[in-house]
Amino acid sequence: MVVLTREQIEERLAALHRASLELVSDLSLEPLLERIVNLAREQVGAQYAALGVLDEEGRFEQFIPVGMSSEEIGKLEHPPVGKGLLGVFQESRHTVRVPKISADERSVGLPPNHPEMESFLGTPIILGDILLGQIYLTNKIGHPEFTTDDERVIETLAAYAAVAISNARLYRDLLEQDRALAQHNEDLALLNDVASALASSLELDDILDRTLSRVMSYLDVEAGEIFLSEEGGQEMKMALHKGEAPVAFWTKDRFRLGEGVIGRVAQTGKPVISSDLKQDVSFLRKAVTESGFLCLASIPLTARGNVVGVMNVVTRRERLFDKREIHLLTAIGSWAGTTIENARLHRQARRLAVLEERERIGMDLHDGIIQSIYAVGLALDYARMAIEDDPKQACLKIEQAIEGLNSTIGDIRSYISDLRPRQLGGKNLREGLQRLVEEFKTNTNLDAILTGPQDGLANLPVAQATALFHICQEALANIAKHARAKRAEVHLWTTKDRVLLEISDDGEGFDLRKMSVTLGHGLSNMHTRAYKVGGDVEITSEPGDGTTVLAWVPLLEA
Q1: I want to staple 263 with a disulfide (CB 3.0 to 4.6 A). Which of 38, 69, 73, 259 is the partner?
Q2: What is the number of structural domains in the chain?
Q3: 480 and 438 in one domain?
Q4: Rounded Cα distance, 163 and 153, in Å
């Protein structure tokens, strides 16, 4: 047995202290573990040394041997599993020193192809109550066994190692948290960027381009594409491709529900990840794999629980899209899907607005311009018949026709500018109706009267006034065309909550069951105009008993 003097022991411990202080300052875990095991081997003069780091369940997380060649390590079937002597002090948490391993009853022998080992020294690495790992030393060089001084040295080293390993782990965890936080911030920045881009436009093409561009840039992929649902959601059609190999991707631009990767995502509403497109039988575009693309992430674009599209990002590099990226892409897919749906609804609203505007123009032309032109026709027809017997009256009718045409031109200009009809321009409803009645009398030579409030309902909103004006215009035109009447009456009055307009005649009347044939678009326009401002129209008529049109609108103040 080697006996050291007090001075030698103190010098050895001082050297160990200096080396251990360097260990504590090392915050890189992997290099630190190698330094610890090499320092332990050096301090006690062992042929072989190893350091085992344990996980939270007491299993070896890392096992670092030194002293054996890489060839010897390669012959071992597996690292130690904590049986025999290793398991003894792992359970007791005390240092174990054995002069001859094979002679100790606790030994279970060495694994196959393991170098021969005789003497053994092992100590646990403990911080507080936590067992972090173990240091093993075998075959003391030049001596048959390890000494009590070796035991003291290695226990001191283990104490320093515990602090160093704990610090390195904390530092590693902090770095991981910092990386995770930085990644989280980058993810949030992308989400914010995408959200801002989506919120700034309702144009579908712009939404698709902005979304795909930002996702491709963030993930650093070479190609991307977006498919949108068509034909009642039973088919996905490519709406956009960006990046490399566009011809290869466009070789198949439609997928039915359940067909291929895209159809499966559209059908299930769940992302699909493929790390090897060449081996993926569900990927149906051979031209894409022949262009070198290898990995794909396919993400549903959802709105209110429905899949409205599918976004693909594709790369030629070997890459596994991780859970964080898939969660991020899924969130973007939800936002983009909702925005796409809103853009589609906006487009439909614009189309509907165009149709409504066409309908409005059609009604205005029918109820206004066409009726005015018809009145001009009546005046000219009267002039033609009177030109020989009463030239003066014929000239008067021609002048009235010219005035009517000029007024009609004014109406057309007003409609183009979306202004009130000429007869209401700057006038109240009663004044406008009075003008209609006067023109009716002039053009038809029929007797007609108007009664109504003296204030003319000047505060009635434009929409309500215009609706009643056109209803009266259409009703008077129908009297002139169809009624064969001698007299027409127009009455305007109010109740507590309504404005009512009645136009009646003493003409032939008609069968209400045939009124759609008799009145055509005119009757439909009356109902439409009243309905749009919250009112209604009621028509009563009997053959031989004249016709009455009763219209009402809510009494609102402008």
Answers
A1: 259
A2: 3
A3: yes
A4: 16
Q: Does 16 score more than 70 pLDDT? A: no
Rounded-to-integer distance, Cα 37 and Cα 165, Å:
12
User: Could you tell me the two tokens for 70?
Assistant: 């890489």
Whole-number pLDDT of residue 52: 85
For residue 300 the two structure tokens come to 């549903």
Query: From CA 230, how far away is CA 254, in angstroms rounded?
Result: 10
3-state helix, strand, coil in the chain (%, to 5): 55, 20, 25
CB burial readout 264-277, b (16+ within 10 A) else e: bbbbeeebbbbeeb
Asked if 460 and 556 count as a contact pair (C-beta separation under 8 A), the reply is yes
| The dihedral formed by the CA atoms of 370, 374, 376 and 378, expressed in degrees to the nearest 10 | 180
Highest average pLDDT, of 25-39, 274-288, 379-393, comes from 274-288
| 227 and 124 housed in the same domain | no
Against a cut of 0.90, is the pTM above it? no
User: Which of 295, 315, 345 is at the close of a domain?
Assistant: 345
Cα–Cα distance for residue pair 390/386, rounded to 1 Å: 5
Phi, psi torsion values for 276, nearest 5 degrees:
-150, 90
Percent of the chain with pLDDT strictly greater than 70: 82
HSE-CB for 71 with a 13 A CA cutoff: 0
pLDDT of 558 above 90: no
| Three-state SS letters, 419-466 | CCCHHHCCCCHHHHHHHHHHHHHHHHCCEEEEECCCCCCCCCCHHHHH
Query: Which is nearest to 112 in space by CA: 76, 65, 72?
Result: 76
* Cβ contacts of 143 within 8 Å, gap of 6 or more: 1, 2, 45, 119
Report the alpha-carbon distance of residue 444 to residue 324 in Å, rounded.
81
Q: Is residue 382 part of a domain?
A: no
Structure tokens at 5: 């003097």
CB 456 within 8 A of CB 498: no
Tell whether 441 and 329 lie within a shared domain. Answer: no
**Burial level of 308, CB count in 10 A (0-12/13-18/19+)?**
buried
Pairing of strands 536-541, 547-554: antiparallel
One domain for residues 28 and 161? yes
Q: Which residues pair with 274 in a beta bridge?
A: 296
Is 113 a member of any domain? yes
CA dist 456 and 275 (Å) reads: 78
Which residue bears the tokens 């032939």?
508
Domain that holds residue 32: 6-173
What's the gap between Cα 440 and its chain centre? 60
Domain assignment present for residue 360? The answer is: no
Tokens of 175: 């770095």
